[in-house]
Hints:
The chain is of the alpha+beta class. The protein is built from eleven helices and 20 strands.
Amino acid sequence: MPKIELMDVTKTFSEGKVLASDNITLTISDGDFVFLLGPSGCGKTTLLKLIAGLEDPSSGKILVDGKDLGMVNPEDRNIGFVFQHFQIFPSMTVFENVAYGMTVRGYDDASIERIAIEALKLVKLDHRVLAYPKELSTPELQKVGLARAIATRSRTLFLDEPLGKLDPKIRRPFRHELRRLIKTLGLTAIQVTHDQEEAMAIADKIIVMRAGKILQYGSPEDLYYRPNSIFVANFFGETNFLEGFVSNVTKDSCTFHLHLGGPKFEVKLAPGHAFKNGAQVMIGYRVEDIELIELHESMQAESQELDLEDKPKMNTIKASVTDAIFIGPSKRFIVKLENGDVIQAKHSSKFLLDIQKGEDILVGFHEHPMVFEYPDDLRKELSKA
Ligand SMILES: Nc1ncnc2c1ncn2[C@@H]1O[C@H](COP(=O)(O)OP(=O)(O)OP(=O)(O)O)[C@@H](O)[C@H]1O
Ligand SMILES: [Mg+2]
């Protein structure tokens, strides 16, 4: 299982005018299933091709198991690459498509048959060896592409939006099958997707890219709960961002003041933050983490202090519900805080059924929000491009 290292890798196109990879340093461990995400044109395909050796870097080095990729002859690189557009040959049978690479490389017939059938068995398509592409469904065609990549016996599998063409209903089971396959074969795999949920569901690690750079690289939980930028926080899930400033700054905590003289929050910060008293910041809360408390409930709670002690510390603010939208499994609430900020909350529609549009409520904010320095260009940070 190969380990992949990129050292200061830059790739430019059009005589240096397009910077597709901007000084990327990155290590991908043995056997990891890594997802590459980011806005269109940010350089995902380019990075994938660089690691696969299909493009040469303009500068920097790529090592596979410590060996400089540039020193390996292209004909000695067995690259398992699955493209979004499957590139299946229509005039060849399923078997011939999977066998094609091996035939070109001059493998003997017995080896070709053994490896191709083995690969087709893995994707559960060994019953369609003699079928032609036009007789296959889209997921089956995708499996042919996958079997062909597996048959290269590359220890690394490169997947550029392999599920992009599949219907979401088919994608879901297929993505778990793909993960199972990769783990069974013990491959290191790198997959590009535009689907955040897919990446969260099956990746070991996720790389978020923007404008040729890597913004963050970590586990799905890291990216969701500890995003290092407003952009990443906004890219995954739904987040409310509140503006304000901080005071009482210590090594691991501060007081956040909602702007317009609104209420204060006690905020725990990640160690190593560099906020100064008075710094303008933004705090982020996921829509599912906003507590909505009915006023009569909060009065009850006050009279039952013992019950409350078990709950995490919560900052409450007066608010009113401007809209309550039923969306099947969940209900979305648009809530106006007493300082004028408008936020959204989303909860299972079975609960909170009583909270109605126009109702005055309390909004509860837990004390561990995401905290970010106020950006130079907020609109750019909040754009998904
Ligand atoms: N062969 C090429 N010649 C010139 N420019 C290129 C070439 N390949 C990519 N680019 C440019 O490099 C940048 C990154 O492209 P890339 O295809 O890697 O983005 P991407 O993240 O894969 O986008 P998408 O999500 O749309 O597939 C873009 O500005 C693109 O136009
Ligand atoms: Mg691409």
